[in-house]
Amino acid sequence: MVLLDGKSLSNKIKAKVKEDVLELQSSKGITPGLAVVLVGNDAASATYVKMKSKSCNEAGIYSVVHEMPESISQDSILKTIEMMNQNPNIDGILVQLPLPSHVDTTVILEAIDPKKDVDGFHPFNVGRVRAGLDGFIPATPYGVMELLKEYDIDVKGKDVCVVGASNIVGKPLATLMLNANATVDICHIYTKDLKAHTSKADIVCVGTGVVGLIKEDMIKDGAIVIDIGINRLEDGRIVGDVDYDKVAQKCSYITPVPGGVGPMTIAMLLVNTVKAAQKRVG
Q1: What tens digit of pLDDT does each residue of 58-71 get?
Q2: Catalytic amino acids?
Q3: Considering only CA atoms, which of 53, 35, 52 is closest in space to residue 89?
Q4: Is residue 225 helix, strand or coil?
Q5: Fewer CB atoms inside 10 Å of the end CB: C or N, the chain?
Q6: How many other CB atoms sit within 10 Å of the CB of residue 58?
Q7: Whether residue 282 has pLDDT greater than 90
Q8: How far apart are CA 136 and CA 274, in angstroms?
């Protein structure tokens, strides 16, 4: 069994991002800029935004966080997004999810200029990625594909089971796998017999937020397991959606939690931000 080390790869990618930023500064006289909108007091979201800001600073990317109270109106958020759309020093805009219930997430995400949609959630980018065209790829699925590539795992012709059908992870990951010529099976909360799907897959990718969802008997010998889940237990431990200790004994490759897919998400967000800056200057 081989651990897919996302932490090590993310550090390598961040070093390359830093080089790209220096190149933009020296050759074009610009510094890539990332703006984040954080609404409310969700602790996990606040921690994640701090990690993004820290990584931006380390890579030389200008970053700004617009912190807003839970009660802020949807119109006020839209005005802030429009201001960032018009700001030539901002290359990437992302809205930290989830948003409060009184805010229409779709309206907010569609308000972002697709050229600055470094999260890859705008329908324009979703459609381009689905069609196999150049567009911003959501960071977590992008990170999964880069991690597989780093370990020379070719998904072409493989049977892939994606467990979880969110717009943020499951659906775009299934699209990327399909574009890479894998045969893709998507499972979700209404799937009748999850084990019937996962047990025949060469690669199982799971991101549901359900601790220990994938058990040893649900994975075939030698399968590759990508655990995208991040869950905090009452004792403070961080675990994924896979029963790691038992599943790891059966598979050929597996991502640890933490240290697997998680670090890749921020690394690929930085890649997208630099890409947006490069497109800005042609």
Answers
A1: 999 999 999 999 99
A2: 52, 96, 119
A3: 35
A4: strand
A5: C
A6: 13
A7: no
A8: 11
- Integer Cα distance of 73 and 70 in angstroms: 9
Cα–Cα distance measured from residue 57 to residue 59, given in angstroms and rounded to the nearest whole number:
5
**Residue 23: pLDDT band by 50, 70, 90 thresholds?**
very high
Q: Which two tokens stand for residue 148?
A: 């597989």
Between CA 30 and CA 167 the distance in angstroms is 32
Rounded to an integer, the average pLDDT of 80-106 is: 96
What is the residue type of 195? K
- The rounded distance, in Å, linking the Cα atoms of 4 and 7 is 9
Q: Residue 147 pLDDT > 90, yes or no? A: yes
8 Å CB contact between 241 and 208: yes
Q: Are 1 and 248 in contact (CB under 8 A)?
A: yes
Cβ–Cβ < 8 Å for 63, 92 = no
User: Could you tell me which residues come within 8 angstroms of residue 62 by beta carbon, excluding any fewer than 6 positions away?
Assistant: 31, 32, 33, 34, 56, 89
The predicted pLDDT at position 41 comes to: 87
| Domains of the chain, first to last | 29-115 (3.40.50.10860), 139-262 (3.40.50.720)
What confidence score (pLDDT) does residue 242 get?
98
| 41, amino acid identity | N
Give the length of the chain: 282
